[in-house]
Each structure stands twice: as structure tokens, then as C-alpha cells.
Amino acid sequence: MKSLTAFVIGCLMIVVLYVITTILLQIYTGEQLSDSLTMGVFGLFGTELAVSGFIKIFKIKKGD
Length: 64
Description:
Blueprint: H1 3-29, H2 35-62
Helix pairs in contact: 1-2
């Protein structure tokens, strides 16, 4: 598996695990994680995935 594909899969897995963890924490403790933490996690990984997409687009145009 290519490194960029593995990176994208890893990012998506982390986001899914974060969502599952926050749901379970909210169910069992009744407390909600801070909105700024959630926005930070989604912002970070959303940006990383967007940059990965741009890298892939430029690799295709370049012919690599």
C-alpha cells in the first residue's frame, strides 16, 4: 500500500475513533467534550486530508 493511501486511511480511522469515543463518553459519563476540541480535531484532519488530495492531484498531473 502506498504511503499516501495509508496516511488517508489512518486519518479517517482516527476521526472515526474520536467520534465513537466521544459518543461513548457522553453516554457513560453524561458529559460532553468541549466544542473547541472537536473543532480542532476535525479541522486538523480535514486540512490534512485536503492537502493529501492536492498532493495526489499534482502527482497525477505531473505523471508520477
